[in-house]
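The pair is quoted verbatim as follows:
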Amino acid sequence: MSAAKPVFPRTVTNLDQAATEEAQQRDGTATRAFSNIQITTSDGRCLFVDKLSGDFRENLTPVQIAACGSTDGQGWDIITAGEHINTANSMLLVNTLTQACLNFDSRRAAGNQVILFSCGGRADGGGTATTSQAFSFNGTAGPISFKPENAAGSCLTSLGDVVDVADCDFSDPNQVFAFGGAAAATATSDASAQTSSVLSAIPSVRSSATTFTALFMFATTTSTAGSEEATITATASTSTSASVPPQSASLSTAAAIAIPTTAVSVGRGGNFDLTAALEANLRDANATKAFTNVEIRAPNGQCLFVDPTAGDFRENLIPVSLVDCSGTPNEKWDVITAGQHNDAENAALIVSSLTNGCISFDGRRSANDTVNLFSCGGRADGYQLMPFTGALSFAFSPTGENGAVCILPGDGRLISGTSYSTHAKPSGSQNPASDLSDTSVPVPAYNRHSITVSTTAVDRGAKPSDMAEAPSSASQTARQSGWNTMSPTSPGVPEMRRRATRTVTFRNVDDFAGYAGRPGWQPGSEPGIDTTKPDGGRETLAHMKAPSDITVVDFSQSDMSTTRLDNSSLAGFLAIPQAANMKCRWINVNGLSWDVIQILGNHKKLHRLAIEDLMNTRNRTKADWYPTHTYLVLVLLKLVHTDGAQKQEEGDNDGNDGEDDGKSWISKGSSRWRRKVSETLKTLFGEPGEGYDVADSPVAVPAKVLENGQQLRLQRSTSTATKLLHINEFRTLQRYRASPNDARTEFMESHSVLSSQKLAVAAEQVSVFITDDNTVISFFELSAEDVEEPILNRLVVPDTTLRRSCDASMLAQAILDAIIDLAIPLTVCYGDVIADLELDVLTRPSVSHTKSLYITITEVNKVLSFINPIMNLINTLRDHKTEGVGPDDMQDPRKGVIISPTTYVYLADVLDHCVLITEALEQVKGQAENMISLIFNTISAYQNESMKQLTIVTIIFLPLTFLTGYFGQNFDGFSDLKRGIPFFWEIAGPVIFFTIIIMMRQMIMESLATLVQRHHIGNLRKHHRKHKHRT
């Protein structure tokens, strides 16, 4: 390029290469709205930088203005999300020559406040984000005003040949800029050149068909700076032949048509079925969208339109109409580049925002009915996918047809037609544009169409790989004017036959919300969470924010400092280096929040797998070793009072100060009975008006609703933010890591033996990092204070072992010890409960006791499942004991994570506590199991004794029953009846006696034998006592 004379003289002759590479680091993970484009002023010139006009590492470089193409340094990246920007509707202006960010510094002298500086605001390249480099962004290519976020009311302006700052004045053309030449000053381009550049990206397909190519474009409306609308003007072209179906003479306008809620008649026959429609057209909540809720305009300016009632009973086979654009929901579309139904590169699904159906091509249907809306994923691969390179314009060409078919604007709807062809051209010709120029087919140029692109139209969560980073020369020409084309992703072939398809016998489970332990999880997901990305690589994490209480403790043998922080002040504190005299640091976080985890993860370079384990609160207890740190995860258990107990205490102390209220025990019992019945009815049927809409409510909802992400109202999509609200909620032992069966969880919780004492066991996951620079980072969901307070009390005293050691591993041991100590009261409480049950069982056993004992056993088993793995974790730490380390080695990263010999010794004490807890709980569990056996044995013995007594009575009365029946016969001449009652007993007595002897002879003989044995044993004992007395 020719060199223009710079306004600012060069201040250095050479750059320090090492310092420059450190200061100017390219963010390879950033989301770029535009890449390597020019920024133009209202008079058509371009912004540029001279890398030698700053300091030795390309900082403090002024921004100058020159004729476009006359200098180097005119390329810019527009970054909307990345390592150095974390706010919505904002952008970084990064020069592609130096990789430095446009920076406004009000502290500098007037006329030299707009400069380039290392992104993040630190000269060494270690900064994160700063408002001095963030500018408001409306999502368009311009016109746009550059308003720095650290100076309200100020705007950048072109002042001669330099960029300066002034008070915002939207009528001042010097404050208007544009990206890529789609500018404040309207630029024109040759229509035929546009057509040639667009068509050159589509491969040639040889056939005898006529030529047809139609360009479509995305468009929405939004407001920009001031109250004006930003408009990008460009020209699209269409080549056609006489065989194309004619367009309607008059353009139609359609009113909005909502999705029916009743069984109305539909265009394909039958009645609309809302349930079937919801099932057939499920929204892919995890999809990556290049555009959201945009209009798609045909070359004649009409918009694509869908009528939900024009298809079949479940919103399939809906024709795609063409109507005058009126902004109705029926004209809105999403462009999905990756998701459940799209895994192809450089391809996209065109999905109706209203019905969630995909535009599909089906060559088996009649000629004018091949293009319809169908359930996404419901066609063979390639017949719903359209080539896509990230531009605002495209040509419909299903990838499954390899360029042989295009989707075209027909007479009021979309139809299909054959692609362009050649006529008597040499076989070596591969340029479709040149082929068209030789066919004598007229190429009419369509009128200009205004496109207004909304900021919300572009999905800022789209992966950089979804957009074309290095377009071809032909598409680059189109991109500079705001246009590009969608071309087939595979080379052309003469003829393509459709492959046979078959109906799927079984439907796979696609929604894993009820089966996964983590929100947003899908099989085959990339393992780990990357803290260098704004959303960690998962869109659900961006919503997981909660207030966090952070305590940072720095200490040495001679000094100690404690700092209280929150989410907003953490990053600034960590930017300050740790004091040289402080040997050990403890960062204690109470409350899991993505922004805090991201800051600490980037600060200490925590491994992505460890971050994933930290965020997953259903993890197993373990210790993982990484190059720079060790990650520990375990479960904290503690005894807590329930809300019911607190309310009861308040009620007992309210008004009467513990005195009797005068009610009799009968009225008190009646009141308690009525209250119990009322609570039971509320449990079964719920409160009047009870119900929760997780997606709509901005406040926290009950834990039982959110614990498993339960959805109580039918919706097409569910907010992921509300699913994550439960992450820091209180959870009882029964609810922690419970199954999705809420009925079982609530029953076990309400019938727990601890509930009668107004107590409960709270459970939460704790994560601890031990780094190689003698730092401990601990994450608690709710209970950080319970562990922090006793440890701080030990650190305050200078002569404690923990304080004198200045050892991160000893600090981790103290955290583990405090967590285990919190579980010790559980053993006492369960022992007390089991003792009360034992007294009830011994005095009056009942089958109802077995229910309480069974629930106790399940709770004890769950506690043991959390405590036993901790012993393995402690043994793992002891196995990694580091020998031969001194105090000076603790902060040396070259030594790795150190488990000192002192920690090895004190971990044995923690292990002893674990053993004591497990032994006590095993004893409680054994008692409960034995009592269940005792209850059933006792009840069985009672039943046997009852049967024995009944048998004896039956034996006694059996002969009497026989004789009564004998003498009760009504026969004439029965002379025995005249002998009277004494005769009856003369017969009955001997019969009863001999019946008892015969029927109970075994029992009588055993009783006599037992009597003789006991008499003999009694004599022996008597003799033994006399002998002992004499001795």
About this structure: The chain has a mean pLDDT of 75. DSSP finds 20 helices and 34 strands in the chain.
